[in-house]
Amino acid sequence: MLKERNQDSMKKEILITGFGGQGIVMAGRILGQAASLEDHHESTFVQSYGPESRGGACSAQVIISNQVIHYPYISRPDILICMSQAGYEKFINTIKPDGMLLVEQDLINPRNAEVEIFSIPATRMAEESGNKMMANIIMLGFLTAVTEVVSLDAALKTVTRLVPEGTEEKNIQAFNKGWDYGRATLKGREKKAAGQTGAIS
Amino acid sequence: MNSFHIILFVCNWGPHSAFQKLQDESADIPAEVKMVRIPCAGRISKALLIKAFEMGADGVMLAGCHPGACRYGSGTESARQNTEDAREILELLGLKKDRVRFATFLPDDSEAMLRLLKDFSNEIKRVGKSPVIPTRKPAPGPIDKKKVAEVVAAHDIFACQDCGKCSSACSLAQMGKPFSPRVVANSVIAGDIESPTVIENIWACLTCGLCYERCPSAVNFPEFIRDVRHVLSKSDRAGHETHGGFFQSMMRTLTSPDLKPEHWEWLPNDIRSNPDGKVLFFGGCAPYFDIFFRRHLGVRTRKILVDSLRLLNFFDIEPALLSDERCCGHDLLWSGDQENFLKLAALNVESFHHLGIEEVITTCPECYRTLKHDYPEHGVEINFKVTHLYEIIEKEISKGAVDFKKMDQSVTFQDACRLSRMERMADLPRKLLSRLKPKGFQEMKDHANAAVCCGNCSWIGCDSFSKALQVQRLRQAHDTGSNLLVTACPKCQIHLQCAMEDPFIGEEIKMEVEDLSSVIARTICWE
Fold it and tell me: CB distance B311–A185 less than 8 Å?
């Protein structure tokens, strides 16, 4: 990803889906602002509540590019992040064939997915650290580590700026948890690919 | 003084006849050879061989009877094995194995003996003077009562309310030993330090800390005992060192600054370490244990170090290793030899500081406690962080994406006193255990802060009560219905395995024992 970003043309279309209340829109806003205000890329952000909002499906569409973005809506995402099964079912068929799928592992059964899947028990991790509202921030940390669409520094700064006052520290902790999990996942895949599955082998 | 010292232990039978013939003929036996006649070469234990070096010998030759000519049957073979082990221990110590040699002689082999002695003497001169500075003990005097009073005051033993909670909890007392921390404390306060019972009790205490755990006045009995031992060790009431004093000899030998131990030569090649790293892995004495107990218990404590390093490597942590690592000194400190403990502490800390080490990781509970607390408390300043391996592993595992393979064993856990009680970290190994996937996990009746001792500490005063304690502990382990006893300290492993060697009930109490680091290392995998 990093390499691609440095090339002449870079454009990532990111779709985040989940239930209303999970902080999907918030995650999208942080992602977009991190990319534009901190990383100095172009970005757009569109939020959509369906008529079923307040508990129903919702989604956020973020485009990050190093060129002017002419149209903010996404029909074929490069990166799909799902935090509910309904969102997954609705959008899984739109993902590009070489796209990346990030899922909340306890809430989603990724049936028929034909792309690379990265999963994280974000809600459980948020509950374990005392506040399940932070699942979105954990997912954001995970996303930052796995996809590198925004830099770590940009994401941290934007999280600190956008979360409610007084909760900065907790949110940064949550973000780091997700980030660590993402790094560990990547490392684990790398090791497995190199044939090292355990400590003794 | 640059003269060499070679000790020749000569068996009273074959070799001594040969040696006497050389003396009769006024043969030119090398002047540096000092002959000590002994009843049988097989009785010169590893401890005695190493003790000679602790006391300043440059070389030791053990002369036994020709194979098949031993009066007692097994003497020649025992001597051969002891020499072999001693040679490996000398390599670890950095003294070079060539300094010890075993040779066998028939009574009329005097010429061969002279040839060998000359050859050995040349060999030792080639290897050079031993860098070991003998640690001289001052002549024992009467017990320094003023010092005892200082120890009593320093630990505020007066706070004892004589309630007896310590005695009802004490592992030794529960085994039926006439032993009571409260009585010892009050006898010492009353000035009864010279009573043989009190002295026996002071050396018998396991310093496991269960009494301190129970004491409502927080009288730190283990540390009090430790410091009274220091006073007693300067008198003629020193304690009884187990295993022939081998471990104390080994530790005292290591206090010589010019000695360059070779602590890690045996390490498998696939372990990744980083010589320039600022995070150091401190192994501890496991390599010595494995050689010393090789023929008795088949102890495999090196495996703990290898598996710990593999775990660190698993998480891409490549620690520095101190090739000339020395003992942390725990056992010297707790067996009364504070002076030599301080020498070891100073040498270790100097090595760490020289390398610019910022963090020391260890998996041994005793090293952990000693480096972290006892060094600074005894005035040896440290400017590095001390971390237990479990802390790092737990932190890394909690980052996620790590899984554990299912185990086909049911598991129970033996707490290490230094970790669970003294450092109050009983929850940490349990947290790691809860991540594993054994068939079942069942705590023993006494566990965590209330766990029972493995039976001995700092290689002193092992007796039948130690044994009874170990047997009871193993029965508790069996009562859990588990078939794997997980330990956190190499000493627990050694001591509990020793009890399993019992010819009568050994089979009944036998149980597989494995260190927690090893269990984690063999089951951990990427998700």
Answer: no
d(CA B410, CA A150): 46
ipTM over 0.85: no
Structure tokens at A83: 């935090």
pLDDT of residue B258 exceeding 60: yes
Place of tokens 């030998």: B253
Q: What pLDDT does residue A199 have? A: 84
Distance CA A132, CA A19 (A): 13
Average pLDDT over residues A156-177: 94
Backbone CA torsion sign across B294, B297, B302, B303: positive
Contacts B521 to A, Cβ<8 Å? 198-200
Distance from CA of B407 to the nearest CA of A (A): 14
Q: Which of A187, A190, A192 should we substitute to test contact with B (largest number of B Cβ atoms within 10 Å)? A: A187
Domain ranges of chain B: 6-127, 145-232, 257-395, 402-526
Contact B526 A188 (CB under 8 A): yes
Question: In chain A, positions 11-70, which contact chain B (CB-CB < 8 Å)?
Answer: none
- Is A30 contained in some domain? yes
User: For residue A3, what pLDDT band results from cuts at 50, 70 and 90?
Assistant: very low
Interface test with B, best of A123, A192, A200 (most B CBs within 10 A): A200
The verdict on residue A158 lying in a domain is: yes
Rounded Cα distance between A11 and B507, Å, is 70
Parallel, antiparallel, or unpaired: how do β-strands B279-282 and B320-321 relate?
Answer: parallel
Q: How far apart are CA A159 and CA A178, in angstroms?
A: 13
CATH class of B6-127: alpha beta
From B194, B182, B185, B195, select the one nearest B153 (Cα to Cα): B185
Q: Is B53's pLDDT higher than 90? A: yes
Task: For residue B520, give the chain A residue with the closest CA.
Answer: A199
Task: Indicate if B402-526 has the same CATH topology as B257-395.
Answer: yes
Q: Has domain B402-526 been given CATH number 2.40.10?
A: no
Q: How far is CA A68 from CA A5, A11, A43, A48, A62, in A?
A: 15, 10, 8, 22, 14
The per-residue pLDDT for B2 is 63
For position A161, which CATH number holds?
3.40.920.10
Q: Locate A93 and state its tokens.
A: 């068929």
**CA–CA distance, B450 with B431 (Å, rounded to integer):** 18
Give the total number of structural domains in chain A.
1
CATH class of B257-395: alpha beta
Give Cα separations from A108 to A84, A124, B112, B474 (angstroms): 6, 13, 83, 47
Residue A197, in any domain of the structure: no
For B184-198, the pLDDT digits (tens) are 999 999 989 989 999
- In the structure encoding, which two tokens stand for residue B242, read together? 């187990």
- Asked if residue A201 is part of any domain, the answer here is no
Strand pairing report for A57-65 and A11-19: antiparallel
Q: What angle do CA B326, B328, B333 make, to 5 degrees?
A: 130
Residue A114 sits in which domain range?
Answer: 2-192
Name the token pair of B46: 């590893």
Identify the helix (H) or strand (E) that includes residue B102: strand B100-105
Do residues B216 and B163 lie in contact, with contact meaning Cβ atoms separated by under 8 Å?
Answer: yes
What pLDDT is recorded for position B309? 97
CA A41, CA B317: separation in Å to the nearest integer? Answer: 35
d(CA B361, CA B313): 13
SS3 B24: helix
Strands laid side by side in the B359-362 sheet: B320-321, B279-282, B359-362, B385-388
Number of H helices, E strands in chain B: 24, 14
